[in-house]
């Protein structure tokens, strides 16, 4: 009987305790739900912090790129040029019409063009491409203030495609140069300029952003220009961007936007492959132009070369699996190379101790030199290596 009484008492305790436990669990769950999901009035709650951070992003949209644009925009200029060219009437250039009307006299025509540039000193020096302003008879520069001023061509170097201009203004904002030898593939690249003349609409540069795709590139343009040490970028560069700066994430210049690949003859827009001349190379040229107005490249090495194909390799008993620079096919009698000891059928394998793989690389290396420089050629002659040295002389 006593055991039954004790059992009844224990059951009564459970009936009292269990509802109390269940009520405590329920209240605890409600409180936790309010803290994590219902929003808390406490300033240190997670939801409050997240909302605050989102609000900060909305209120202040600045980032590394927008800060660069703000810093650099006023240093960018739009360039408009006028160039006088001789043009021939296409009808009178035809042999059928010439037999009736004779030779026609070429007429002159004013051709207008545009491009970009950037200010590099507070007293008005501006960098751009030679193909933008090098042959202009009149150069006008538009500032971000909307003011248009005439510019003077201080100097140009068609070989490297660099031109230096000057406007008569003081106290101008200007860009600083980075060390382009330290540029890393994959870092931010920001291009500013005047594509398609859009700068003229509101006196503000167009901004495009990408990354550095490659460095130390050689680009063969089919002209007599030496595009060495180029920076490749996928930042969109279009017609009119030539001469504008390519900037790093600090807002310093790493290159001058110069050429693009368009993917075809009839496509003039960007496909994400653009090239800028590294600013270390531009700076060296700029300093010479500022001092002398030009770079003296009026030398004549006095030889002609061609690529080494399989037929020539077989004739000269060369290894067809190797790349050779070029073979000498003609010498100017009494010329510079003739006097230095170069011979026809010599195969040029190095220029100034740098290996060359084809005839274009030989031409690139030599065209980039100046009067007074020493040219050293390493050649294969009858299976042996020979070294030929000469000092580049001004051609008569």
Characterize the structure shown.
Among the domains are: 2-58, no CATH class; 180-292, Thrombin, subunit H (Beta Barrel); 303-391, PDZ domain (Pdz3 Domain, Roll). A seven-stranded antiparallel beta sheet has the order 5-4-1-2-3-7-6. The protein is built from ten helices and 19 strands. It is 27% helix and 31% strand. With 396 residues, the chain is an alpha+beta fold. Mean pLDDT is 85; it is low at 1-6 and 39-43. The chain has helices at residues 2-36, 46-59, 64-72, 95-101, 130-133, 199-202, 279-292, 310-315, 336-340, 359-367, and strands spanning 76-87, 107-119, 125-128, 138-142, 148-150, 152-157, 162-166, 188-193, 206-219, 227-233, 245-247, 253-260, 274-278, 303-306, 326-331, 347-351, 354-355, 374-381, 384-391.
């Amino acid at each position: 009987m006593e055991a039954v009484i004790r059992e009844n008492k224990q059951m009564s305790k459970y009936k009292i305790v269990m509802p109390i436990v269940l009520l405590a669990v329920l209240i605890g769950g409600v409180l936790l739900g309010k803290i994590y999901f219902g929003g808390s009035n406490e300033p240190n709650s997670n939801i409050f912090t997240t909302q605050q951070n989102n609000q900060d992003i909305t209120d202040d949209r600045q980032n590394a790129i927008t800060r660069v644009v703000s810093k650099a925009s006023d240093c960018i200029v739009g360039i408009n040029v006028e160039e006088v060219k001789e043009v021939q009437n296409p009808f009178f250039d035809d042999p059928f019409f010439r037999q009736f009307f004779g030779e026609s006299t070429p007429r002159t025509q004013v051709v207008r063009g545009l491009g970009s540039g950037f200010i590099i000193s507070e007293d008005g020096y501006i960098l751009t491409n030679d193909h933008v302003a090098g042959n202009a008879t009149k150069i006008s520069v538009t500032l971000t203030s909307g003011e248009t001023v005439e510019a003077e061509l201080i100097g140009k170097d068609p070989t490297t495609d660099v031109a230096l201009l000057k406007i008569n203004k003081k106290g101008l904002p200007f860009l600083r140069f980075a060390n382009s030898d330290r540029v890393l593939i994959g870092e931010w690249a920001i291009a500013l300029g005047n594509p398609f003349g859009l700068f003229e609409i509101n006196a503000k540069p167009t901004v495009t952003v990408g990354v550095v795709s490659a460095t130390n590139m050689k680009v063969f343009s089919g002209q007599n220009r030496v595009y060495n040490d180029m920076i490749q970028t996928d930042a969109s560069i279009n017609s009119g961007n030539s001469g504008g700066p390519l900037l790093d994430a600090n807002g310093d210049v790493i290159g001058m936007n110069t050429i693009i690949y368009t993917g075809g003859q009839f496509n003039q827009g960007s496909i994400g492959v653009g090239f800028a001349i590294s600013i270390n190379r531009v700076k060296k040229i700029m300093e010479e132009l500022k001092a002398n107005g030009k770079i003296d490249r009026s030398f004549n090495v006095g030889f002609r070369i061609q690529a080494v194909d399989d037929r020539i390799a077989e004739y000269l008993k060369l290894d067809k699996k190797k790349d050779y620079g070029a073979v000498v096919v003609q010498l100017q009698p009494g010329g510079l190379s003739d006097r230095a000891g170069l011979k026809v059928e010599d195969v040029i394998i190095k220029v100034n101790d740098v290996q060359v793989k084809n005839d274009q690389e030989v031409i690139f290396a030599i065209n980039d030199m100046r009067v007074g420089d020493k040219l050293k050629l390493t050649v294969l002659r009858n299976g042996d290596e020979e070294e030929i040295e000469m000092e580049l002389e001004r051609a008569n």
